[in-house]
Amino acid sequence: MYYKRLPLEGMSNCRDLGGYPTKYGKTTNFGVFVRSEAPVELSKRDIEFLKNYGVTKSLDFRGDSDITIFPSSLKNVEGIEYHHLPMFGRADALGFEKSGKNASKDFSGWGKSYIQWVEIYKAWIKDVMHHFAVTEGACQYNCNAGKDRTGITSAFVLAIAGVDLNDITFDYCVSRTMLKPRFPELSKQWGDYLKDEKGRLIINHPFLYTPQDAMYQLFKYINREYKNIENFLYSCGVSEKDVFLIRQKLIG
């Protein structure tokens, strides 16, 4: 049995990319790509569920400090191949240098941040897409919240499969809803910049949102500068073979 949102005790934003219609007249396959927030302190039941679901590889996009303080529960699990693939450090993630500036005030919006990231970290995109292409079984992947780095890579995978931008944006936006019940718990991982002067989580903090305009801005930029997702990925060094293999996994 496959699920759109996997019923786990320790994660609320663990979702399968299956079930989306594509321009090729097919629907994306379940049990291939599983996106999530960081799999931290998962129960034995959760780990067994993921293994039984077919997960054979886990890609962790978090930085060094994050995986040290909050290690993945899927590391050193028999039958699951764990890879640490950090996209960037925490300062880059916040979109500002370590200069004492207020992150919230300097934040210019997710759309602009995503555009900057995909241009700066092309080598990382190449590595991630290669792992996606060659994984046998289901590939689980995550950042901290499972919405930004994870959201971008999910969008690219769905675009390769020919999923409409509106559905890609829906898949991105729903993270906010899925994560909200766990905000207090996840704030321990996200840091003090999400809290007020009394140490309380700021529920309406811009870093907690997944606005639809962010994904529209990103794809508008890609289509303007590269014509389509394939050309953009080729500019990252992703091979035509890997693009083909990802498409085949999702709609073959």
Identify the notable features of this structure and list them briefly:
5-stranded mixed sheet, 5 strands, single chain, 252 residues, Protein-Tyrosine Phosphatase, Chain A, alpha/beta, 47% helix
Fold and architecture overview:
- By secondary structure, the chain is α/β, with parallel strands linked by helices.
- It has a single domain, classed as Protein tyrosine phosphatase superfamily (Protein-Tyrosine Phosphatase, Chain A), CATH 3.90.190.10.
- It has twelve helices and five strands.
- A five-stranded mixed beta sheet has the order 1-2-5-3-4.
- The two termini are 19 Å apart.
CATH superfamily: Protein tyrosine phosphatase superfamily
Percent strand: 5-15%
How helix-rich are the residues, as a percent range?
Answer: 40-55%
Q: Total number of β-strand segments?
A: 5
Give the oligomeric state.
Answer: single chain
User: What is the total domain count?
Assistant: 1
CATH class: Alpha Beta
C-alpha end-to-end distance:
19 Å
The assigned CATH architecture is Alpha-Beta Complex
> Biggest sheet: strands side by side, in what order?
1-2-5-3-4
What structural class results from the helix and strand content?
A: alpha/beta
Helical stretch count? 12
Radius of gyration equals 17 Å
- Overall shape: it is globular
> What fold name stands as the CATH topology?
Protein-Tyrosine Phosphatase, Chain A
Low-confidence segments, given as residue ranges, are 94-102
Could you spell the SSE succession in H and E letters?
Answer: EEHEHEHHHHEHHHHHH
Short summary:
By secondary structure, the protein is an alpha/beta fold. It has a single domain (15-89, 99-251), classed as Protein-Tyrosine Phosphatase, Chain A, CATH 3.90.190.10.
